[in-house]
Amino acid sequence: MKIIETNLTFKKDGANEINSDFRCLNDLKKMNKTSMIIIHHAAHSSATVDDVHRWHKEEGFRGFGYHFLITKDGQIYRGRPENTIGAHCKGYNQSSLGICLQGNFEVEKVNKIQLEALIQLCQYLCNKYGINTIKGHRELRSTTCPGQNFPLVEVKNTVLSNLGSDRNFDTYTVKERDTLWSIAKSFNMSVDKLM
């Protein structure tokens, strides 16, 4: 899997100038903990990283709100740095990574190459950050995103059933009155998986 760097910059004022020296990256707030992946579609058949970056600036954001964009040919482009708060799902940006797929899955179907790239990226991020939760935007907000034709259940099942055992889980200090169930719930997993 290859992630293509885009060298986007993020202006505090939402200005439209593109600056390639990264001075403005520190305008983005750092994410404390990554606990979820949220999947989106661009709702546009051929939207590029630059298109979405421009659209988000026009909406008043500092630029590309997602952490990644996957094109129909399976190319994975980095948007916001992984360690920064996104602008893709209000109320959930502080602890989630946003992945956007090129296309409008209300009227199109995701192709096999793009779907495989998404699954690889999700597995990589889940293993890297100890993530156990993958959601479609529509599961968290009032929207149809990532589209009625998007195979969300298939993606979740494929990714979560194939995660490695060498995952980067957070540590947990057991407290008095903790149960295995309460500890497992804090990591959003089953007791069997915790053991």
From TrEMBL:
Ranges where the LysM domain occurs: 170-195
Gene Ontology MF term list: N-acetylmuramoyl-L-alanine amidase activity; zinc ion binding
Protein name as catalogued: LysM domain-containing protein
Family: Belongs to the N-acetylmuramoyl-L-alanine amidase 2 family.
InterPro entries: Amidase/PGRP_sf (IPR036505), Amidase_domain (IPR002502), LysM (IPR018392), LysM_dom_sf (IPR036779), PGRP (IPR015510), PGRP_domain_met/bac (IPR006619)
PROSITE patterns per the UniProt record, alphabetical: LYSM
CDD domains: LysM, PGRP
GO biological process: peptidoglycan catabolic process
